[in-house]
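Here is an idea for our session: we take a single protein and study its fold together. Which protein we use is up to you, so please pick one and set it down. Once you have written the record down, we can walk along the chain together:
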Amino acid sequence: MDIEKLTLEIVEKFDIKIYQDSRYFKFGADAFALANFASKYIKQKKKSINYIDMCSGTGVIGILISKIKNFDYVTYVEINEYAKDINKLNLEINNINGQILNTDLRKLPESLKIDTYDYITINPPYMRANHGLKTINGQKDLAKIESDDEFLNDVFKVAFALLKDRGELFLVHRVERMADILVSSRVNKMEPKTLQFIRNKGSKKASIMMIRFVKNGSRFLECIDDYNIGG
C-alpha cells in the first residue's frame, strides 16, 4: 500500500484520525450519523461487549463507536483487501485494538461463534446488483453495489446467527430500499424497532435512513425525529 496516495482526515470532535483513499472509499455523513445513532442504544456493561462492524470499509464507524463508548475491542469485517489494509492503518494510528476479517460477511457463521454478539453495525452497498451502471473502478463498485440479489437478505440471516437473543443490528441505507429491508428483516426474525431519517439542511425529503433491529424483538416500530445534517 502506497501511503502517499492516502489523505489523512482529522476529526477533532471525536479525537480520531482517518486515512482514506478518496478515489475509492471516502466516508460521508452517513458514517457519522450511524455511529451517533447506534451509540444512543448501545448499553455499557461491566463485562466486555462483543461488537462487529460489517462492511467496515476503512473502519470509520467502528472507530467512532469505540471512542464514544470506550470499547476495548472491535471486530471489523471487510471483503475488499485494499480497504482492509487502510482499516488496519486506522486502528494503529488511533491506538484501537481489534481484528479485521478480510472475508465475505456470509462466511462469518463458519468462523465466528454464533449467538454471542451484542451489537452489529453495517453501512452496506446501497445499490442493487445488476441495476444501474458500473464504473470502470472495481474498488468503488465493491463499496457501492451489492454482490448479488440475495445480499440484503443474507445480511439479516448472518446478523440473526451471530447476535445473542435480543442483540441489536444498526443499519444505514437509502430510503428507496425500505420495503426490501423490512421484508428481509422480518423473514429473518430481525425485528425493526427504531427508524430515523437523515435529512440535509434545507431539503424537504430524506434520502437516507437508519434502522435499529432486535433479534427476536416484539413487533413495534418507532420513528424518531430526523437526524439533520448541516444544521
In short: The first strand starts at residue 7 and ends at 11. The domain at 3-229 is CATH 3.40.50.150 (Rossmann fold).
